[in-house]
Amino acid sequence: MNISFRKASLGLALALVAGSAFAATVNDNLNVTASVASSCKITSVNAISFGAYDPAVANATTPADAAGAINVVCTKGGAVAIQLDQGVQAKAASTCLAPARQMKSGTDLLGYDVYSDTGRTTLWGCDATNQVSFTSTGALAPTTFATYGRVPAGQDVPSGSYADTIVVSVTF
Predict the structure, then answer these.
(1) Are 12 and 4 in contact (CB under 8 A)?
(2) Percent of the chain whose pLDDT exceeds 90
(3) Of the candidates 18, 53, 109, 165, which lies 20 to 30 Å from 172 by C-alpha distance?
(4) What is each CA distance from 111 to 39, 94, 119, 150, in whole angstroms?
(5) What are the structural domains of the chain?
């Protein structure tokens, strides 16, 4: 029995020594980093469709109004600007500050404007003076910007399907 007791005591002593060899602790830091890119994306552009413009009746004295929309998502907190160019058919004297946009049907032209406000007083153009600027609230849901179009009354144009294309630019 004495030998069994000694073996058991020796085994216990070895276990205690081995356990105490692993009882010390050391620490260090694991650094975790990420870089969030500044970005924007145009998620959709809803066309401005004026429908029927009739220079002989209603639109002889009343402008035709219509609205569209631009939807964008951008990195949260970023400064963003949206600009609209003058369109493909702009008059030669057109400028970013005062775009003279026109829709075309064959060789015929129908003037129109795009505004950033419901009252149609602020032209939406392609420079810092008449762009739409905002601070992004985040990329989880699109921010919608209405586009307010107007075809001025009293344009004497032939019948046809008139169209133009405007480039939307988002700067961030």
Answers:
(1) no
(2) 83
(3) 165
(4) 35, 12, 18, 9
(5) 40-171 (2.60.40.1090)
